[in-house]
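Thread: quick sanity check before group meeting

JM: Hey all, I'm pulling together slides for Thursday and realized we never actually wrote out the predicted structure for the chain we discussed last week. Dropping the sequence here so it's in one place. If anyone has concerns about the input, flag it before I start.
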Amino acid sequence: MRKTLVSTILFILFLLFIAISYLSFFGYETVRFNKIIKSELKKSNNNIDLNFDKISIRLDIKKLVLFVKLINPNLNYYDTTFPLKSLRANVNLEFLTKKKLFIEKINLSTEYLEFNKVKPILNKIDLKEENFKNIIKARFQINDLRLEFDENFKLKKNYTIDGNINTAEIKISNNYIIKNLIANFSYKNSSFDLDKISWNLKDSKNISGDFFDGKLNLKPVKKDYDIDLIFKTKNASIFPKISIMNYSFIKDDITEVKTKFSIKKNKTVFFKSLSIKNRNNDLQLNDLLLNKNYNLINFGKIKVKTSIDNDINNEFIIFNRDKITIEGKVFDAKMLIKELSKERKKNDFLKKISKEIKIDFNKILKGAKFPIKNFSLVGKINKGDFYDVLAKSDFSDNKHLDISLKKQKQSELKILEVYSDIALPLLSDYKFFEGLDGGNLIYLSKFDKRKSSNVLTINNFKLNKAPALAKLLTLADLKGLTDTLKGEGISFDTLEIKYESSPEKMDIKEIFMIGPSISILIDGYVEKKSGLISLRGTLVPAKTLNTVISKIPVIGEILVGKKVGEGVFGISFKIKGLPNNTKTTVNPVKTLTPRFITRALEAAKKKASKQE
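JM (edit): ok, ran it. Output follows.
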Protein backbone atom coordinates (compact mmCIF):
# COMPACT_ATOMS: atom_id res chain seq x y z
CA MET A 1 0.00 0.00 0.00
CA ARG A 2 2.68 2.42 1.03
CA LYS A 3 4.70 1.51 -2.01
CA THR A 4 1.73 2.13 -4.28
CA LEU A 5 1.10 5.55 -2.71
CA VAL A 6 4.68 6.56 -3.20
CA SER A 7 4.56 5.38 -6.80
CA THR A 8 1.37 7.36 -7.40
CA ILE A 9 2.83 10.54 -5.91
CA LEU A 10 5.99 10.14 -7.94
CA PHE A 11 3.92 9.59 -11.07
CA ILE A 12 1.86 12.72 -10.35
CA LEU A 13 5.04 14.70 -9.73
CA PHE A 14 6.46 13.37 -12.98
CA LEU A 15 3.33 14.40 -14.85
CA LEU A 16 3.49 17.79 -13.16
CA PHE A 17 7.14 18.13 -14.14
CA ILE A 18 6.30 17.19 -17.71
CA ALA A 19 3.42 19.70 -17.74
CA ILE A 20 5.56 22.48 -16.27
CA SER A 21 8.39 21.71 -18.67
CA TYR A 22 6.00 21.68 -21.60
CA LEU A 23 4.46 25.00 -20.53
CA SER A 24 7.89 26.50 -19.96
CA PHE A 25 9.37 25.45 -23.30
CA PHE A 26 6.46 24.97 -25.72
CA GLY A 27 3.41 26.63 -24.19
CA TYR A 28 -0.23 25.70 -24.50
CA GLU A 29 -3.02 27.21 -26.59
CA THR A 30 -6.58 27.36 -25.23
CA VAL A 31 -9.83 29.34 -25.33
CA ARG A 32 -10.63 28.54 -21.70
CA PHE A 33 -9.58 31.92 -20.31
CA ASN A 34 -11.00 34.12 -23.08
CA LYS A 35 -14.08 35.16 -21.14
CA ILE A 36 -12.35 35.91 -17.86
CA ILE A 37 -9.67 38.05 -19.57
CA LYS A 38 -12.25 40.06 -21.53
CA SER A 39 -14.45 40.41 -18.46
CA GLU A 40 -11.66 41.68 -16.22
CA LEU A 41 -10.54 44.18 -18.87
CA LYS A 42 -14.08 45.54 -19.16
CA LYS A 43 -14.34 45.90 -15.39
CA SER A 44 -11.10 47.87 -15.16
CA ASN A 45 -11.80 50.15 -18.13
CA ASN A 46 -15.07 50.20 -19.98
CA ASN A 47 -13.41 51.99 -22.92
CA ILE A 48 -11.25 48.97 -23.75
CA ASP A 49 -12.69 46.42 -26.13
CA LEU A 50 -10.30 43.52 -26.74
CA ASN A 51 -11.07 40.57 -28.99
CA PHE A 52 -8.92 37.56 -29.83
CA ASP A 53 -9.30 33.96 -31.03
CA LYS A 54 -7.47 32.17 -28.24
CA ILE A 55 -4.47 32.44 -25.95
CA SER A 56 -1.07 30.82 -25.87
CA ILE A 57 0.26 30.18 -22.35
CA ARG A 58 3.89 29.80 -21.30
CA LEU A 59 5.19 29.53 -17.74
CA ASP A 60 8.06 31.35 -16.03
CA ILE A 61 8.65 28.97 -13.13
CA LYS A 62 11.14 31.27 -11.39
CA LYS A 63 8.73 34.23 -11.18
CA LEU A 64 5.57 32.12 -10.97
CA VAL A 65 4.17 34.13 -13.87
CA LEU A 66 2.26 32.98 -16.90
CA PHE A 67 3.11 34.59 -20.22
CA VAL A 68 -0.18 34.86 -22.05
CA LYS A 69 0.00 35.66 -25.75
CA LEU A 70 -3.23 36.54 -27.54
CA ILE A 71 -3.74 34.99 -30.96
CA ASN A 72 -5.08 37.39 -33.64
CA PRO A 73 -5.76 40.27 -31.21
CA ASN A 74 -7.93 43.27 -32.11
CA LEU A 75 -7.97 46.30 -29.78
CA ASN A 76 -10.47 49.17 -29.70
CA TYR A 77 -9.73 51.98 -27.25
CA TYR A 78 -12.06 54.98 -26.95
CA ASP A 79 -13.62 53.97 -30.28
CA THR A 80 -10.21 54.00 -31.96
CA THR A 81 -9.07 50.77 -33.58
CA PHE A 82 -5.46 49.68 -33.18
CA PRO A 83 -4.29 47.04 -35.68
CA LEU A 84 -2.14 44.87 -33.41
CA LYS A 85 0.73 42.64 -34.46
CA SER A 86 1.07 41.02 -31.04
CA LEU A 87 -0.23 41.31 -27.49
CA ARG A 88 1.28 39.49 -24.53
CA ALA A 89 0.36 39.62 -20.83
CA ASN A 90 2.17 38.49 -17.70
CA VAL A 91 -0.47 36.87 -15.40
CA ASN A 92 0.35 36.23 -11.73
CA LEU A 93 -0.45 32.64 -10.74
CA GLU A 94 -2.26 33.84 -7.61
CA PHE A 95 -5.45 33.97 -9.63
CA LEU A 96 -5.58 30.15 -9.43
CA THR A 97 -6.11 30.31 -5.67
CA LYS A 98 -7.78 33.71 -5.24
CA LYS A 99 -10.00 33.32 -8.32
CA LYS A 100 -8.93 36.82 -9.34
CA LEU A 101 -7.08 37.68 -12.52
CA PHE A 102 -3.92 39.65 -11.72
CA ILE A 103 -2.25 40.95 -14.90
CA GLU A 104 1.13 42.45 -13.99
CA LYS A 105 2.31 43.58 -17.43
CA ILE A 106 1.14 43.87 -21.00
CA ASN A 107 3.43 44.11 -24.01
CA LEU A 108 1.99 44.92 -27.41
CA SER A 109 3.11 45.90 -30.88
CA THR A 110 1.09 47.34 -33.74
CA GLU A 111 0.97 47.62 -37.47
CA TYR A 112 1.57 51.13 -38.86
CA LEU A 113 -0.86 53.72 -37.46
CA GLU A 114 -2.06 57.04 -38.90
CA PHE A 115 -1.41 59.76 -36.32
CA ASN A 116 -4.55 61.77 -37.04
CA LYS A 117 -6.69 58.69 -36.27
CA VAL A 118 -5.18 58.15 -32.81
CA LYS A 119 -4.68 61.84 -31.97
CA PRO A 120 -7.98 62.16 -30.01
CA ILE A 121 -6.85 59.66 -27.35
CA LEU A 122 -3.59 61.46 -26.46
CA ASN A 123 -5.26 63.31 -23.60
CA LYS A 124 -6.36 59.95 -22.15
CA ILE A 125 -2.77 58.84 -21.60
CA ASP A 126 -1.32 62.10 -20.17
CA LEU A 127 0.02 63.27 -23.54
CA LYS A 128 -1.62 66.64 -24.15
CA GLU A 129 -3.03 66.90 -27.64
CA GLU A 130 -2.04 70.59 -27.89
CA ASN A 131 1.63 69.56 -27.75
CA PHE A 132 1.16 67.78 -31.06
CA LYS A 133 -0.92 70.42 -32.86
CA ASN A 134 1.88 71.21 -35.34
CA ILE A 135 1.96 67.63 -36.62
CA ILE A 136 0.16 67.79 -39.95
CA LYS A 137 0.31 64.06 -40.56
CA ALA A 138 2.40 61.07 -39.51
CA ARG A 139 2.60 57.31 -39.94
CA PHE A 140 4.21 55.35 -37.11
CA GLN A 141 4.49 51.87 -35.64
CA ILE A 142 4.68 50.77 -32.00
CA ASN A 143 7.28 48.00 -31.73
CA ASP A 144 6.93 47.51 -27.97
CA LEU A 145 4.44 49.17 -25.63
CA ARG A 146 5.09 48.01 -22.05
CA LEU A 147 2.28 48.59 -19.56
CA GLU A 148 2.33 47.71 -15.85
CA PHE A 149 -0.74 47.38 -13.60
CA ASP A 150 -1.46 47.27 -9.89
CA GLU A 151 -3.55 44.57 -8.17
CA ASN A 152 -6.75 46.39 -9.19
CA PHE A 153 -5.61 46.46 -12.81
CA LYS A 154 -5.05 50.21 -12.73
CA LEU A 155 -2.40 51.40 -15.15
CA LYS A 156 0.81 52.62 -13.53
CA LYS A 157 2.56 55.76 -14.78
CA ASN A 158 5.80 54.01 -15.69
CA TYR A 159 4.76 52.74 -19.11
CA THR A 160 7.34 52.77 -21.92
CA ILE A 161 7.01 52.88 -25.69
CA ASP A 162 9.47 51.98 -28.45
CA GLY A 163 8.68 52.34 -32.12
CA ASN A 164 9.52 53.98 -35.41
CA ILE A 165 8.15 56.79 -37.53
CA ASN A 166 7.78 55.87 -41.18
CA THR A 167 6.97 59.38 -42.35
CA ALA A 168 5.79 62.62 -40.76
CA GLU A 169 5.02 66.21 -41.76
CA ILE A 170 5.38 68.93 -39.11
CA LYS A 171 4.81 72.69 -39.31
CA ILE A 172 7.59 74.57 -37.52
CA SER A 173 6.46 78.08 -38.46
CA ASN A 174 4.75 79.94 -41.29
CA ASN A 175 8.04 79.77 -43.19
CA TYR A 176 9.24 76.23 -42.53
CA ILE A 177 7.75 72.73 -42.77
CA ILE A 178 9.42 69.41 -41.99
CA LYS A 179 8.57 66.70 -44.52
CA ASN A 180 9.39 62.98 -44.77
CA LEU A 181 10.62 62.70 -41.19
CA ILE A 182 11.87 59.18 -40.40
CA ALA A 183 13.10 58.10 -36.95
CA ASN A 184 13.11 55.57 -34.14
CA PHE A 185 11.34 56.80 -31.01
CA SER A 186 11.04 55.85 -27.35
CA TYR A 187 9.09 57.19 -24.37
CA LYS A 188 10.10 56.51 -20.77
CA ASN A 189 9.64 58.37 -17.48
CA SER A 190 8.07 61.35 -19.31
CA SER A 191 11.15 61.61 -21.52
CA PHE A 192 10.68 61.37 -25.29
CA ASP A 193 13.62 60.38 -27.51
CA LEU A 194 14.12 60.28 -31.27
CA ASP A 195 17.10 58.51 -32.80
CA LYS A 196 18.46 58.04 -36.32
CA ILE A 197 16.35 60.98 -37.48
CA SER A 198 16.28 62.13 -41.09
CA TRP A 199 13.97 64.68 -42.69
CA ASN A 200 13.52 67.26 -45.41
CA LEU A 201 13.08 70.93 -44.48
CA LYS A 202 11.15 73.12 -46.92
CA ASP A 203 10.83 76.92 -46.66
CA SER A 204 8.15 79.31 -47.91
CA LYS A 205 10.05 79.72 -51.21
CA ASN A 206 9.86 75.95 -51.76
CA ILE A 207 13.61 75.61 -51.24
CA SER A 208 14.40 72.37 -49.44
CA GLY A 209 17.30 70.66 -47.69
CA ASP A 210 17.92 67.18 -46.33
CA PHE A 211 18.98 66.48 -42.73
CA PHE A 212 20.29 63.24 -41.21
CA ASP A 213 21.97 61.52 -38.21
CA GLY A 214 19.63 63.34 -35.87
CA LYS A 215 19.05 62.73 -32.15
CA LEU A 216 16.47 64.44 -29.96
CA ASN A 217 15.60 64.26 -26.28
CA LEU A 218 12.49 66.04 -24.99
CA LYS A 219 11.74 66.16 -21.27
CA PRO A 220 9.05 68.13 -19.44
CA VAL A 221 10.31 70.28 -16.55
CA LYS A 222 7.32 71.65 -14.66
CA LYS A 223 5.39 73.44 -17.41
CA ASP A 224 8.35 73.83 -19.76
CA TYR A 225 10.07 71.43 -22.15
CA ASP A 226 13.84 70.94 -22.24
CA ILE A 227 15.17 69.73 -25.58
CA ASP A 228 18.58 68.45 -26.66
CA LEU A 229 18.99 68.19 -30.43
CA ILE A 230 21.82 67.09 -32.72
CA PHE A 231 21.72 66.64 -36.50
CA LYS A 232 23.77 66.98 -39.68
CA THR A 233 23.04 68.41 -43.11
CA LYS A 234 24.63 69.10 -46.49
CA ASN A 235 22.15 71.94 -47.09
CA ALA A 236 22.96 74.47 -44.36
CA SER A 237 22.21 77.31 -46.81
CA ILE A 238 18.48 76.80 -46.08
CA PHE A 239 18.94 78.13 -42.52
CA PRO A 240 17.65 81.67 -41.84
CA LYS A 241 20.32 84.23 -42.73
CA ILE A 242 21.53 87.21 -40.72
CA SER A 243 20.92 89.90 -43.33
CA ILE A 244 23.76 92.24 -42.36
CA MET A 245 26.35 89.45 -42.66
CA ASN A 246 27.81 88.05 -45.86
CA TYR A 247 28.37 84.33 -45.52
CA SER A 248 27.47 81.03 -47.12
CA PHE A 249 27.85 77.28 -46.67
CA ILE A 250 29.53 75.17 -49.34
CA LYS A 251 27.09 72.79 -50.98
CA ASP A 252 27.57 69.15 -49.93
CA ASP A 253 29.87 70.16 -47.07
CA ILE A 254 28.54 68.39 -43.95
CA THR A 255 27.40 70.81 -41.23
CA GLU A 256 26.67 69.62 -37.69
CA VAL A 257 24.16 71.40 -35.48
CA LYS A 258 24.04 70.93 -31.70
CA THR A 259 21.64 72.76 -29.43
CA LYS A 260 20.15 72.71 -25.95
CA PHE A 261 16.98 74.79 -25.63
CA SER A 262 13.76 75.13 -23.69
CA ILE A 263 10.23 75.87 -24.86
CA LYS A 264 8.57 77.91 -22.14
CA LYS A 265 4.95 77.94 -21.06
CA ASN A 266 4.48 81.35 -22.75
CA LYS A 267 5.85 79.85 -26.04
CA THR A 268 9.16 81.70 -25.84
CA VAL A 269 12.23 79.68 -26.81
CA PHE A 270 15.45 79.89 -24.77
CA PHE A 271 18.62 78.52 -26.41
CA LYS A 272 21.15 77.76 -23.70
CA SER A 273 23.56 76.90 -26.50
CA LEU A 274 23.43 76.61 -30.28
CA SER A 275 26.34 75.46 -32.42
CA ILE A 276 26.41 75.39 -36.24
CA LYS A 277 29.74 74.03 -37.39
CA ASN A 278 31.57 72.57 -40.35
CA ARG A 279 35.19 72.53 -41.48
CA ASN A 280 35.18 76.24 -42.45
CA ASN A 281 32.34 77.81 -40.50
CA ASP A 282 31.65 78.01 -36.79
CA LEU A 283 28.66 79.85 -35.27
CA GLN A 284 28.23 79.64 -31.49
CA LEU A 285 25.30 81.27 -29.68
CA ASN A 286 24.65 81.33 -25.94
CA ASP A 287 21.63 82.42 -23.87
CA LEU A 288 19.52 83.29 -26.90
CA LEU A 289 15.87 84.10 -26.12
CA LEU A 290 13.26 84.23 -28.90
CA ASN A 291 9.55 85.04 -28.72
CA LYS A 292 6.83 82.78 -30.10
CA ASN A 293 7.36 84.33 -33.56
CA TYR A 294 11.09 83.52 -33.36
CA ASN A 295 12.13 87.15 -33.07
CA LEU A 296 14.98 88.09 -30.75
CA ILE A 297 14.24 89.15 -27.17
CA ASN A 298 17.75 88.90 -25.76
CA PHE A 299 21.08 87.11 -26.10
CA GLY A 300 24.30 86.64 -24.16
CA LYS A 301 27.19 85.90 -26.50
CA ILE A 302 27.63 85.14 -30.18
CA LYS A 303 30.85 83.84 -31.72
CA VAL A 304 31.17 83.93 -35.50
CA LYS A 305 33.65 82.42 -37.91
CA THR A 306 32.59 82.01 -41.54
CA SER A 307 34.22 81.35 -44.88
CA ILE A 308 33.48 81.91 -48.54
CA ASP A 309 35.43 79.82 -51.04
CA ASN A 310 37.42 78.47 -48.07
CA ASP A 311 38.70 81.97 -47.16
CA ILE A 312 37.75 83.34 -43.74
CA ASN A 313 35.60 86.44 -44.24
CA ASN A 314 34.07 86.85 -40.76
CA GLU A 315 35.75 86.25 -37.41
CA PHE A 316 34.42 88.15 -34.41
CA ILE A 317 32.59 87.92 -31.06
CA ILE A 318 29.44 89.79 -29.98
CA PHE A 319 28.88 90.47 -26.28
CA ASN A 320 25.58 91.70 -24.89
CA ARG A 321 26.25 93.52 -21.62
CA ASP A 322 25.48 97.13 -20.70
CA LYS A 323 26.01 97.81 -24.38
CA ILE A 324 26.43 95.56 -27.38
CA THR A 325 30.09 95.25 -28.32
CA ILE A 326 31.40 93.56 -31.45
CA GLU A 327 35.12 93.02 -31.87
CA GLY A 328 37.24 90.80 -34.05
CA LYS A 329 39.81 90.26 -36.75
CA VAL A 330 37.68 90.57 -39.87
CA PHE A 331 34.15 91.44 -41.00
CA ASP A 332 32.71 91.12 -44.51
CA ALA A 333 30.80 94.37 -45.10
CA LYS A 334 29.37 93.47 -48.48
CA MET A 335 25.80 93.73 -47.14
CA LEU A 336 26.35 96.63 -44.72
CA ILE A 337 25.46 99.60 -46.95
CA LYS A 338 22.47 97.75 -48.46
CA GLU A 339 21.05 96.99 -45.03
CA LEU A 340 21.56 100.47 -43.61
CA SER A 341 19.86 102.08 -46.62
CA LYS A 342 16.93 99.69 -46.98
CA GLU A 343 13.49 101.29 -46.92
CA ARG A 344 11.46 98.72 -45.01
CA LYS A 345 9.55 98.07 -41.87
CA LYS A 346 11.34 97.83 -38.58
CA ASN A 347 13.65 94.90 -38.08
CA ASP A 348 11.24 92.53 -36.35
CA PHE A 349 14.04 90.18 -35.39
CA LEU A 350 15.77 92.91 -33.34
CA LYS A 351 12.72 94.89 -32.24
CA LYS A 352 13.20 93.97 -28.57
CA ILE A 353 16.78 95.28 -28.57
CA SER A 354 17.38 98.88 -27.45
CA LYS A 355 21.01 99.56 -26.58
CA GLU A 356 24.16 101.38 -27.56
CA ILE A 357 26.40 99.48 -29.93
CA LYS A 358 30.17 99.63 -30.46
CA ILE A 359 32.07 97.82 -33.22
CA ASP A 360 35.81 97.43 -33.79
CA PHE A 361 37.38 95.35 -36.56
CA ASN A 362 40.99 95.02 -37.60
CA LYS A 363 39.97 94.58 -41.22
CA ILE A 364 36.85 95.00 -43.35
CA LEU A 365 36.42 93.02 -46.55
CA LYS A 366 34.84 95.01 -49.39
CA GLY A 367 36.61 93.88 -52.51
CA ALA A 368 40.06 92.31 -52.67
CA LYS A 369 41.72 95.31 -54.36
CA PHE A 370 41.15 97.78 -51.53
CA PRO A 371 41.24 96.29 -48.02
CA ILE A 372 39.64 98.46 -45.33
CA LYS A 373 41.54 98.68 -42.04
CA ASN A 374 40.80 99.85 -38.52
CA PHE A 375 37.02 99.96 -38.83
CA SER A 376 35.25 101.58 -35.88
CA LEU A 377 31.51 102.19 -35.43
CA VAL A 378 29.42 103.62 -32.62
CA GLY A 379 25.66 103.95 -32.64
CA LYS A 380 22.35 103.07 -31.08
CA ILE A 381 19.63 100.50 -31.64
CA ASN A 382 16.09 101.38 -30.61
CA LYS A 383 13.59 98.52 -30.94
CA GLY A 384 15.44 97.13 -33.93
CA ASP A 385 16.10 100.49 -35.58
CA PHE A 386 19.68 101.69 -36.08
CA TYR A 387 20.28 105.42 -35.61
CA ASP A 388 23.02 107.88 -34.59
CA VAL A 389 25.57 105.70 -36.34
CA LEU A 390 29.09 106.99 -37.00
CA ALA A 391 31.67 104.80 -38.67
CA LYS A 392 35.23 105.47 -39.79
CA SER A 393 37.86 103.37 -41.51
CA ASP A 394 41.04 103.59 -43.57
CA PHE A 395 42.10 102.36 -47.00
CA SER A 396 45.60 103.77 -46.48
CA ASP A 397 47.23 106.67 -44.65
CA ASN A 398 45.46 109.29 -46.78
CA LYS A 399 42.44 107.37 -48.08
CA HIS A 400 39.44 107.07 -45.77
CA LEU A 401 35.84 105.92 -45.50
CA ASP A 402 33.18 107.73 -43.40
CA ILE A 403 29.60 106.62 -42.76
CA SER A 404 26.89 108.47 -40.89
CA LEU A 405 23.29 107.44 -40.16
CA LYS A 406 21.00 109.85 -38.34
CA LYS A 407 17.31 110.00 -37.58
CA GLN A 408 15.42 113.28 -37.83
CA LYS A 409 13.65 114.34 -34.68
CA GLN A 410 9.85 114.12 -34.69
CA SER A 411 10.04 112.10 -37.87
CA GLU A 412 10.57 108.57 -39.17
CA LEU A 413 12.99 109.91 -41.77
CA LYS A 414 16.59 108.69 -41.63
CA ILE A 415 19.60 110.20 -43.38
CA LEU A 416 22.50 108.01 -44.50
CA GLU A 417 25.69 109.74 -45.68
CA VAL A 418 28.72 107.95 -47.06
CA TYR A 419 32.02 109.46 -48.18
CA SER A 420 34.76 107.27 -49.60
CA ASP A 421 38.08 108.36 -51.08
CA ILE A 422 37.93 105.20 -53.19
CA ALA A 423 34.59 104.46 -54.87
CA LEU A 424 34.98 100.89 -56.10
CA PRO A 425 34.78 98.94 -52.79
CA LEU A 426 31.27 100.25 -52.18
CA LEU A 427 30.09 99.66 -55.77
CA SER A 428 31.71 96.37 -56.72
CA ASP A 429 28.48 94.39 -56.15
CA TYR A 430 26.46 96.40 -58.69
CA LYS A 431 26.63 95.45 -62.39
CA PHE A 432 25.85 99.03 -63.41
CA PHE A 433 29.30 100.10 -62.20
CA GLU A 434 31.20 97.28 -63.89
CA GLY A 435 34.46 98.60 -65.33
CA LEU A 436 34.73 101.60 -62.99
CA ASP A 437 38.26 102.60 -62.03
CA GLY A 438 39.34 105.33 -59.61
CA GLY A 439 37.23 108.18 -58.33
CA ASN A 440 35.80 109.19 -54.97
CA LEU A 441 32.22 108.69 -53.86
CA ILE A 442 29.59 110.71 -52.03
CA TYR A 443 26.25 109.08 -51.24
CA LEU A 444 23.23 110.69 -49.60
CA SER A 445 20.03 108.77 -48.84
CA LYS A 446 16.91 109.99 -47.07
CA PHE A 447 14.50 107.17 -46.30
CA ASP A 448 11.68 105.94 -44.12
CA LYS A 449 9.67 102.72 -43.95
CA ARG A 450 8.03 103.27 -47.33
CA LYS A 451 10.38 105.08 -49.70
CA SER A 452 13.78 106.69 -50.15
CA SER A 453 15.32 109.57 -52.03
CA ASN A 454 18.96 109.11 -53.04
CA VAL A 455 21.85 110.92 -54.69
CA LEU A 456 25.10 109.19 -55.63
CA THR A 457 28.04 111.23 -56.93
CA ILE A 458 31.35 109.88 -58.25
CA ASN A 459 34.13 112.27 -59.34
CA ASN A 460 37.21 111.82 -61.54
CA PHE A 461 37.01 108.20 -62.67
CA LYS A 462 37.43 106.02 -65.74
CA LEU A 463 35.31 103.33 -67.34
CA ASN A 464 37.17 100.35 -68.79
CA LYS A 465 35.44 97.78 -71.00
CA ALA A 466 32.05 98.70 -69.48
CA PRO A 467 29.67 96.34 -71.39
CA ALA A 468 26.59 98.59 -71.36
CA LEU A 469 28.46 101.67 -72.58
CA ALA A 470 30.41 99.65 -75.15
CA LYS A 471 27.15 98.41 -76.65
CA LEU A 472 25.82 101.99 -76.95
CA LEU A 473 29.00 103.26 -78.60
CA THR A 474 29.01 100.35 -81.07
CA LEU A 475 25.36 100.91 -82.03
CA ALA A 476 26.05 104.64 -82.43
CA ASP A 477 29.01 103.79 -84.69
CA LEU A 478 31.38 105.86 -82.53
CA LYS A 479 34.37 103.65 -83.28
CA GLY A 480 37.00 105.92 -81.83
CA LEU A 481 35.33 106.04 -78.45
CA THR A 482 34.71 102.28 -78.57
CA ASP A 483 38.43 101.65 -79.11
CA THR A 484 39.31 103.99 -76.26
CA LEU A 485 36.89 102.21 -73.93
CA LYS A 486 38.50 98.87 -74.77
CA GLY A 487 41.98 100.30 -74.26
CA GLU A 488 42.94 102.86 -71.65
CA GLY A 489 39.31 103.65 -70.82
CA ILE A 490 37.11 106.73 -71.07
CA SER A 491 37.55 109.39 -68.39
CA PHE A 492 34.69 111.21 -66.70
CA ASP A 493 34.69 114.27 -64.50
CA THR A 494 31.42 113.46 -62.75
CA LEU A 495 28.69 110.84 -62.49
CA GLU A 496 25.57 111.87 -60.61
CA ILE A 497 22.63 109.52 -60.06
CA LYS A 498 19.38 110.77 -58.57
CA TYR A 499 16.71 108.19 -57.86
CA GLU A 500 13.75 107.44 -55.64
CA SER A 501 12.96 103.95 -54.44
CA SER A 502 9.82 102.27 -53.11
CA PRO A 503 8.88 98.61 -52.61
CA GLU A 504 7.37 98.62 -56.13
CA LYS A 505 10.04 100.29 -58.25
CA MET A 506 13.17 102.38 -58.54
CA ASP A 507 12.35 105.67 -60.25
CA ILE A 508 15.53 107.01 -61.86
CA LYS A 509 15.16 110.78 -62.03
CA GLU A 510 18.52 111.35 -63.61
CA ILE A 511 21.84 109.71 -64.44
CA PHE A 512 24.25 112.37 -65.68
CA MET A 513 27.82 111.62 -66.80
CA ILE A 514 30.16 114.23 -68.22
CA GLY A 515 33.78 113.96 -69.28
CA PRO A 516 36.37 115.07 -71.82
CA SER A 517 35.08 112.61 -74.45
CA ILE A 518 31.34 112.19 -74.01
CA SER A 519 28.38 113.23 -71.90
CA ILE A 520 25.33 111.09 -71.13
CA LEU A 521 21.93 111.90 -69.60
CA ILE A 522 19.51 109.09 -68.68
CA ASP A 523 16.19 108.68 -66.88
CA GLY A 524 13.72 105.81 -66.46
CA TYR A 525 12.65 103.17 -63.96
CA VAL A 526 13.22 99.59 -62.78
CA GLU A 527 10.34 97.45 -61.54
CA LYS A 528 11.42 95.48 -58.48
CA LYS A 529 9.00 92.58 -58.70
CA SER A 530 9.46 91.74 -62.38
CA GLY A 531 12.94 93.24 -62.83
CA LEU A 532 11.74 95.15 -65.93
CA ILE A 533 14.19 97.88 -66.99
CA SER A 534 13.04 100.94 -68.93
CA LEU A 535 15.62 103.66 -69.64
CA ARG A 536 15.94 106.44 -72.18
CA GLY A 537 18.80 108.84 -72.67
CA THR A 538 21.03 110.99 -74.79
CA LEU A 539 24.73 110.48 -75.54
CA VAL A 540 26.69 113.42 -76.97
CA PRO A 541 30.38 113.50 -77.91
CA ALA A 542 32.30 116.32 -76.24
CA LYS A 543 32.95 118.20 -79.52
CA THR A 544 29.24 118.55 -80.21
CA LEU A 545 28.53 119.66 -76.66
CA ASN A 546 31.35 122.23 -76.76
CA THR A 547 29.99 123.56 -80.05
CA VAL A 548 26.52 124.05 -78.56
CA ILE A 549 27.80 125.67 -75.37
CA SER A 550 30.24 127.93 -77.22
CA LYS A 551 27.36 129.49 -79.12
CA ILE A 552 25.88 130.76 -75.86
CA PRO A 553 27.01 134.42 -75.69
CA VAL A 554 29.72 135.24 -73.13
CA ILE A 555 29.08 132.10 -71.06
CA GLY A 556 30.15 129.77 -73.85
CA GLU A 557 33.37 131.64 -74.52
CA ILE A 558 34.29 131.61 -70.84
CA LEU A 559 33.54 127.90 -70.34
CA VAL A 560 34.73 126.41 -73.63
CA GLY A 561 36.98 128.97 -75.29
CA LYS A 562 36.89 130.38 -78.79
CA LYS A 563 38.13 127.29 -80.61
CA VAL A 564 35.70 124.39 -80.97
CA GLY A 565 35.56 121.34 -83.18
CA GLU A 566 33.25 120.89 -86.04
CA GLY A 567 31.11 118.55 -83.90
CA VAL A 568 28.99 115.52 -84.75
CA PHE A 569 25.44 114.70 -83.90
CA GLY A 570 24.76 112.75 -80.74
CA ILE A 571 22.34 109.88 -80.28
CA SER A 572 19.22 109.17 -78.31
CA PHE A 573 18.73 105.64 -77.02
CA LYS A 574 16.25 103.42 -75.26
CA ILE A 575 16.95 100.32 -73.18
CA LYS A 576 14.02 98.12 -72.21
CA GLY A 577 13.44 94.53 -71.09
CA LEU A 578 14.16 92.04 -68.36
CA PRO A 579 17.70 91.95 -66.92
CA ASN A 580 18.99 89.16 -69.17
CA ASN A 581 16.95 90.15 -72.22
CA THR A 582 17.16 93.90 -72.72
CA LYS A 583 16.71 95.53 -76.13
CA THR A 584 18.66 98.66 -77.02
CA THR A 585 17.67 101.04 -79.84
CA VAL A 586 19.53 104.20 -80.95
CA ASN A 587 18.61 107.19 -83.12
CA PRO A 588 20.57 110.30 -84.15
CA VAL A 589 19.65 113.61 -82.54
CA LYS A 590 19.90 117.00 -84.26
CA THR A 591 19.19 119.15 -81.23
CA LEU A 592 19.88 118.93 -77.53
CA THR A 593 17.19 119.39 -74.90
CA PRO A 594 17.38 122.44 -72.65
CA ARG A 595 17.72 120.06 -69.71
CA PHE A 596 20.85 118.47 -71.19
CA ILE A 597 22.38 121.87 -71.92
CA THR A 598 21.54 123.12 -68.42
CA ARG A 599 23.21 120.12 -66.77
CA ALA A 600 26.24 120.48 -69.04
CA LEU A 601 26.52 124.16 -68.17
CA GLU A 602 26.34 123.41 -64.47
CA ALA A 603 29.09 120.81 -64.79
CA ALA A 604 31.25 123.10 -66.89
CA LYS A 605 30.88 125.96 -64.41
CA LYS A 606 31.84 123.67 -61.54
CA LYS A 607 34.91 122.43 -63.41
CA ALA A 608 35.97 125.95 -64.34
CA SER A 609 35.67 127.18 -60.75
CA LYS A 610 37.88 124.32 -59.53
CA GLN A 611 40.57 125.19 -62.09
CA GLU A 612 40.77 128.82 -60.97
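AS: nice. The radius of gyration is 39 Å. The chain has a mean pLDDT of 78.
JM: adding both to the slides.
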